[in-house]
Automatic annotation (TrEMBL), chain A:
InterPro entries: ABC_transporter_permease, MetI-like, MetI-like_sf. The keyword Transmembrane applies. Belongs to the binding-protein-dependent transport system permease family. Residues 18-31 have a biased composition (Low complexity). This is ABC transporter. Residues 93-305 form the ABC transmembrane type-1 domain. GO terms for cellular component: plasma membrane.
TrEMBL record, chain B:
PANTHER family: ARABINOSE-BINDING PROTEIN-RELATED, BLR3389 PROTEIN. This is Sugar-binding protein. The lineage of its organism: Bacteria, Bacillati, Actinomycetota, Actinomycetes, Micromonosporales. It holds the Pfam family SBP_bac_1. It comes from Planosporangium mesophilum. Gene3D superfamilies: Periplasmic binding protein-like II.
Length: 321, 439
């Protein structure tokens, strides 16, 4: 807790103390001139129009049967009953959670490692980082199509690489057991750069004196990483994880372009199930029901993350410095 | 206030349309348009797929029509994949095309059920000479119930057993299989010669469907699926379905396809067609468009080795070995809401005109028009064209591809379950049970 009695605001370097610098008296908290509620209005309206109202619409639609033509017919809870009894939904939910868990468990350590490494000021790191971050510039569509060619068992790299990783016929994307891992791999390739960038920025914000202090205390580089860098990245990890997890729960494009849910239904996730329901089967009502589940899941998961990580308390990792 | 069973679409869209994203785009701007008296100035908006070659022929027909017509026609073309969705959204709004390209069957059934299409039966019956120009089995495939809603507008696309003469020679196989047991014994011959018996783009489930379509047709005749398409889900319990699925499982086990078939693509020049053209596979069960695609990508292969045959007969099967499955053709349908229904119908008459038909033949297609034997025999793709033409003319039935014919909501589950059969994840009983159990 920063105390007001010391005469300087949190965040000012301690060295300022010796200079007895006195700034203008800070406004007491709560009386600071903050923007009035009118300032929030545009954002609120936007949020209402493009987030809240559509979500309500999805819930309404989930109680109807609608082919996209003519008028929707209210059918009560039929879609919801179908949702719980449909084995496809259960399988898709399992696949979604597996994809989410695998994405998070692989991308987070990689992104932290690359991000912290790229935070160094050495020139070679700057050059290599630029290359690492290249996938950021490519659209999901282009990435998926490129990977589709790479995993082709007859004309792609899978033909030559497959035998070394247990696929003598290069049948990686066509095997129900491995297809999901291809998706996970492509997602790593695609999204680690973005999260690395976040970690790079965060790692560069860690005050150098913490490392200096750790070095004086005899810390090795590993100690410094484990006891300084990681704790300092805590809020970034939470932010990045939330983006990753909620993003994975709703991720869709790569699956559409790479496997179309196949082989069989091995890579059908909830968002893909929703797409199929709406735009292949023209069952808008049932698709809306799946969409509603995704909304609930996504909201729940992000609330849980915020609740149990202490992120909601908005405590800075720089407190006390 | 009691809640009406039907909520107004507009008010619901106010809420839900935003959420459904794309739907909004199609409906947000509604309000204008709508039904009205004939209005020549509005013209005829003809929706079709983006295809440089085909649309040149289409445009030529439109130019000929516009030279004399009051209501001018114009093409609006969309890419293949988004076409169905764009059409769907437009059909749910007042901003509909006047004339649109479709695949008949399931691709227009719901539009008919929602009373959005003009009945073309009076037009055909009122002009017997016009009606007689179309091959009946193909014209009938455009029927929904007992009414016509589509006029054939493209070449016919039966599914053909393409084979490579070079591969047959190499494996010392004298002719493509005439019966299923012959096919099975040839599988061993080809494998012994180091050639994959059948190319299969198994990452695309519709390529698998062709096998089931033909087998069920040969074993049980067209009525088996006919009943299912008409809405009888218990039709899946027909023994012909089980027998056909077991034949497929047997063929997969015998190594009829590459072990990695489920990774193989169809599109592009690195798919099943290329494996076939490179001599790695001996045969390829595919729609007639495979010929044009090979002509484009591997012209030497077409000249030296590519040949066509009918799907083999099945011993003891009830079906006619001359029956055909595939896409009979594409159709133009007219929307009821069009302000120029009569002019639009007039435009459809051009689909049977000599100039239009000649353009298609010159392009290597085989239009669904009667009496073209000599014209096709003189075309540059005479051998293939005559084969297709005779195949369809001799066919006792021309069954529309199941994924197009069946109700939309069953198409995807059917494809997914069939893919599982090919992958060994489902047996015949599992497939049948899954299809009957669908909501």
């Amino acid at each position: 807790m920063t105390t007001q009695t010391t005469g300087f605001q949190g965040g000012a370097p301690p060295s300022a103390l010796s200079g007895q610098r006195r700034g203008p008296a800070p406004a007491a908290p709560g009386r600071a001139s903050r923007p009035g509620s009118a300032y929030v209005l545009p954002a609120t309206l936007f949020f209402l129009a493009f987030a809240v109202v559509p979500v309500i619409g999805v819930f309404v639609l989930s109680f109807t049967s609608w082919q996209g033509l003519g008028d929707p017919t209210f059918i009560g809870l039929d879609n919801w009953r179908r949702l719980v009894s449909d084995p496809g939904v259960l399988a898709a939910t399992g696949t979604t959670f597996l994809l989410t868990a695998l994405s998070w468990a692989t991308q987070t350590p990689l992104a932290i490692a690359v991000g912290v490494w790229a935070a160094g000021r050495q020139r070679n790191r700057a050059v290599l980082s630029t290359i690492y971050f290249l996938p950021l510039l490519l659209s999901s569509g282009a990435i998926a199509i490129a990977w589709r060619a790479i995993v082709d068992p007859n004309f792609g790299i899978a033909k030559y690489l497959g035998p070394f990783i247990g696929f003598p016929d290069g049948n990686i994307i066509g095997n129900p057991k491995s297809a999901l891992y291809v998706i996970v791999f492509v997602l790593i390739w695609q999204f680690v750069p973005f999260h690395s960038l976040i970690y790079q920025a965060a790692a560069r914000n860690i005050p150098a004196m913490l490392y200096d202090a750790a070095t004086i205390d005899g810390a090795t580089r590993w100690h410094a990483f484990w006891f300084v860098t990681l704790p300092q990245l805590k809020n970034t990890i939470i932010t990045s994880s939330t983006i990753m997890i909620v993003g994975s729960l709703t991720y869709f494009e790569t699956i559409l372009l790479l496997t179309q849910g196949g082989p069989g239904d091995a890579t059908v996730t909830l968002p893909y199930l929703m797409y199929q329901g709406a735009f292949n089967n023209y069952e808008m009502g049932f698709a809306a029901t799946v969409a509603a589940v995704i909304v609930v899941l996504g909201t729940l998961v992000s609330l849980l993350i915020v609740r149990f990580s202490g992120f909601g308390r908005m405590r800075s990792t720089l407190e006390g410095l | 206030m009691t809640t009406p069973a039907h909520i107004s679409r507009r008010s619901l869209l106010g809420l839900a349309g935003l959420g459904a994203g794309a739907l909004t785009l199609g409906t947000a701007g509604c309000g204008s348009g709508g039904q009205g008296a004939s209005n020549a100035a509005a013209g005829i908006d003809v929706w079709c797929l983006k295809d440089d070659v085909q649309n040149k022929i289409q445009q030529a027909a439109i130019d000929r029509f516009n030279a004399t017509a009051k209501a001018k026609a114009k093409i609006t073309a969309y890419d293949n994949d988004p076409y169905k969705q764009k059409l769907r959204i437009a059909m749910g709004s007042p901003q509909q095309p006047d004339v649109f390209f479709n695949w008949g069957g399931g691709s227009i059934r719901q539009y008919v059920q929602n009373d959005l299409l003009a009945d073309l039966t009076p037009m055909l019956n009122g002009d017997p000479a016009f009606k007689a120009k179309f091959i009946p089995s193909v014209l009938d495939a455009g029927k929904i119930g007992d009414k016509y809603y589509g006029i054939p507008n493209r070449g016919m696309q039966p599914v053909i057993m393409f084979y490579s003469q070079q591969a047959l020679d190499k494996a010392k196989v004298s002719a493509p299989p005439a019966t299923w047991s012959e096919l099975l014994s040839q599988v061993d011959r080809f494998k012994a010669a180091g050639i994959t018996p059948f190319a299969l783009a198994g990452s695309q489930a519709w390529t698998l469907l062709m096998w089931l379509e033909y087998l069920v047709d040969r074993i049980g005749g067209p009525a088996v699926f006919g009943g299912i398409a008409a809405g009888d889900r218990n039709g899946w319990r027909d023994p012909a379905i089980t027998q056909a699925l077991n034949a497929i499982i047997d063929l997969v086990k015998r190594g009829g396809f590459d072990s990695n078939f489920a990774s193989v693509n169809y599109d592009g020049d690195v798919g099943a067609g290329t494996l076939f053209a490179q001599g790695k596979a001996a045969m390829h069960l595919m729609g007639s468009w495979e010929y044009t695609a090979q002509l484009d990508q591997h012209p030497a292969f077409v000249k030296d080795a590519l040949r066509s045959a009918a799907f083999p007969a099945f011993e003891g099967g009830k079906g006619d070995a001359k029956a055909v499955v595939g896409n009979p053709t594409n159709y133009f349908s007219v929307t009821k809401r069009s302000r120029n229904v009569d002019s639009a119908k007039e435009f459809l008459k051009a689909m049977a005109s000599d100039a239009y038909v000649d353009d298609w033949i010159a392009n290597g297609d085989v239009p669904a028009i009667t009496g073209l034997e000599s014209k096709i025999a003189q075309s540059k793709d005479a051998q293939f064209g005559s084969f297709v033409y005779k195949m369809v003319q001799d066919a006792s039935s021309f069954q529309l591809s199941w994924d197009q014919a069946i109700e939309n909501k069953y198409a995807q589950p059917m494809l997914t379950n069939l893919q599982k059969v090919f992958l060994g994840q489902l047996d015949a009983k599992g497939f049948v049970d899954a299809m009957v159990a669908l909501p």
